[in-house]
Amino acid sequence: MIEVGAKAPPFKLQDHLGRTVASEGLLGRRHVLLCFYPLDFTPT
Question: Which of 2-6, 31-35, 40-44 has the highest mean pLDDT?
Answer without folding.
Answer: 2-6
